[in-house]
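Handout, page 2. Input:
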Amino acid sequence: MELKKNPNADIESIRTPLIASGLLLIGGLVLAAFTYTTEIKSEDKLASGDDTTEIQYIEEEVDEPEQIETPPPPTVDAPPPITEEIEVEENTEKEPDVVVVTDPPVETAPVEEVVIEEEIIDFPDVEAQFPGGVVAMKKWIAENIQYPQTAIEMNEQGRVFLSFVVEPDGRITNIKVERGVSPDLDREAKRVVRKMPKWVAGESGGKKVRTRCRLPINFTLQ
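Output:
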């Protein structure tokens, strides 16, 4: 059986227009692709700053903030640095002695001790006496008396009357010349009495008391 072609189904007649349409479509797509790439590159250039003209145009339209000029720091005239070596000399001066001045001590009057003397008895119950009695006293005076040489030359002689107090402990105090002969003889009589040993104290009312005694000492040139 022989097949026959339908004249309506013959596409040979439209092949050429289809190919041309396809070429036009491909060319349009290629042209669109190049155009899109160029625009992207232009935008990238603007972002990266490669296009100087576009950047300058944008900078002119943007208002830059006003810049405040900072005044320069003040200048201080400092002396030039010292480069010379400074020699430190050893201090040979001696430090002055520190003198501490103190106020002089305030002199106070000495406190006098108030001694209350016991009453001196002139006539006690028991008289005070030289140890050993009157005979021993006369012997002691004869052995210890020294006749002044000036009194011998002046031929001075006589009796010196003395008074003194015998304390409760036997000491002899308050020696006085009641009647004298000359300064030298009076002085010697007082010296002898002052040199005497302790007496036996007098008694009054059963206890030892201060007793006043009187004694004549005779000076005679032989």
